[in-house]
Amino acid sequence: MASAWRLLHDAEVGIARLPGAHPLVAPLADALEAVAKGHVGISPPYHDLRKTAEALKLARIALRGAYDEQRVTVFDRDPLAIAAASSPQVMRTVARTILGPLDHAAERDRALLLDTFGAWLDADGSADRAAATLFCHPNTVRHRLRRLQDQTGRSLSQPRELAELTLAFEIDRRITDPAH
Questions:
Q1: How far apart (Å, rounded) are the C-alpha atoms in residues 81 and 94?
Q2: Which of 9, 117, 135, 142 has its CA 20 to 30 A from that of 166?
Q3: What gap in Å lies between CA 34 and CA 72, rounded to an integer?
Q4: Considering only CA atoms, which of 74, 78, 99, 122 is closest in space to residue 175?
Q5: Is 150 helix (H, G, I), strand (E, B) or coil?
Q6: CB burial readout 68-77, b (16+ within 10 A) else e
Q7: Widest CA span of the chain, in angstroms?
Q8: Would the pTM of this model clear 0.90, i.e. be above it?
């Protein structure tokens, strides 16, 4: 994979030539994940070098979507991360609107509910798999998720409300990260 890199005042940027008519970004993301010391943002592939400035803009947005547990963010592979990072000021307001009721809980309790929700999302909505990740009983996961629903007023069984909670969760874990 041919590439060229340049150090700018605030980031190291690179352009990589990906082979094929429909280049696969996954091998590049995997390679960068293996060697990157910091956060990485990758733009969608493009075929015309005149589009480089736009691609750099999209890569910078993807970079803002990265955090310690997901150091490499690909613009067109992780739309929730991109939405969470696109307009930080607006997204902070969105997250506060949705997760604001959790601010009345103790910080430890708030973190526990959001960590459980994140594990449940990562487990594709399986309380059993989330429980295995969290080292607790599946009923504990279900109970915490009910508490999250009760406190936020949003239901995990309603697609729009679940999407809102998921977006707010993605925003929250990025804006509380000291790297952003």
A1: 14
A2: 135
A3: 10
A4: 99
A5: helix
A6: eebbbbbbee
A7: 54
A8: no
Question: Percent of the chain having pLDDT more than 90?
Answer: 63
Cα separation, 134 vs 128, in Å, equals 10
Structure tokens at 72: 């490499």
Burial of 48 (0-12, 13-18, 19+ CB in 10 A): exposed
Which residues neighbour 46 within 8 Å (Cβ) at sequence distance 6 or greater?
A: 52, 54, 55
Fill in the DSSP letter of residue 23. -
Residue 123 makes CB contacts below 8 A (sequence gap 6+) with: 129, 130, 133
Q: pLDDT digit string (tens) for 40-93? A: 999 999 988 899 999 999 999 999 888 888 889 999 888 888 988 888 888 999
